[in-house]
Amino acid sequence: MLFTETIRVALAALRANKMRSLLTMLGIVIGVSAVIAVVALGRGAQQAVNDRIASLGTTLLTVSPGQARSGGVFSFDVRSRLVIEDAEALRDRGTEIAAVQPEMSSNLQVQFVNKNAGTQVVGTTANYPTVRKYEIETGRFFSESEDLGRQRVAVVGPTVLQNLGVTIPEAIVGENIRIRGIQFTVVGVYKSKGQASPFSNPDDQIFIPLQTARYRVMGNNRLRSISVLAPSEAKIPETMADIQKILRREHKLRPDRPDDFQIRNQADFLNTLGETTQVFSMLLAGIAAVSLLVGGIGIMNIMLVSVTERTREIGIRKALGATKLNILFQFLIEAIVLCLLGGALGIAVGAGGAMAFTKFLGWSTEVGATSVGLAFGFSALVGVVFGVYPARRAAGLDPIVALRYE
Length: 406
Description:
alpha+beta; six-stranded mixed beta barrel; two-stranded antiparallel ribbon; 14 strands; elongated
């Protein structure tokens, strides 16, 4: 048999059993689409995190509570907390500090008219938009005097509006909402920052004055973090040293005791989040690759069944002059074509799924050429690896025995 005729016969065999061919490809389609969608989700999340952190500026430092050691065991206790007095000390005594922005937060129930939604309520200072680079879409941010006066005013995010059934941002400015049953007046709505990952949404937040949060909502002075701006990138080491010196004094730490707080810059966040996202993506991609393996085993099983069903046909072909190589090549082509078609369909389904995540869930995704090439190449490899054994079995049949097979 000629090379082109072998290909034609292989394709004709696949067309003759369309349903079986489609079901055989299903495992490859699921595996490839899962790999494409998962990798796209991981790459998109990593890029979104990088963009968001970069947008905050390279001089932003974040101070968060550390772990206090007690009896050789790390634990969070009263010594490892950050409080409002720590932020005030940094603001008043810092010599290499451009701005200090403390924040406390809690997930609380918010009510507007007859709508309820759970959201993150953040108590912070009036300089939050400057330090964290937030922009106001309509209305305004609360002022320092409103913070000192413990006024019940709030600035809400776009996702909060959606959850409360508000379609026009201007419509809620001046209206009253209830946070934990306490009435607040909405004074502004900030612009969307975009969802950095499926697990956090900066648009789903409500900002209220820090002193209002301390005395009227949260009922304590504990801070989630303190953001500090260094005067310049060159001054970051001096600013970190300044923060360390002031907080160690505030926490009354002896020279032989380690810090009970952490100071991190944007590079640290980028590295940590990048590594975490990469590991998470690799884990999910590995799980998806198992689907490809299962799909390959399914193809091998179906091809073995096909060899058994077509034993007499193989005997006739051999009697008419087909060589072992012709038969081997025919069945190998069938397996590879099934995998390549399954890979192509899987790429389309995976890319479509990634776009659906972006459109309907707002998740950031990025379909890369590398992941598409790897998934498609792996599907072809699966066809070769799992198609060899059935093809060798078909090629090794004795023509006389095959002709007598019923």
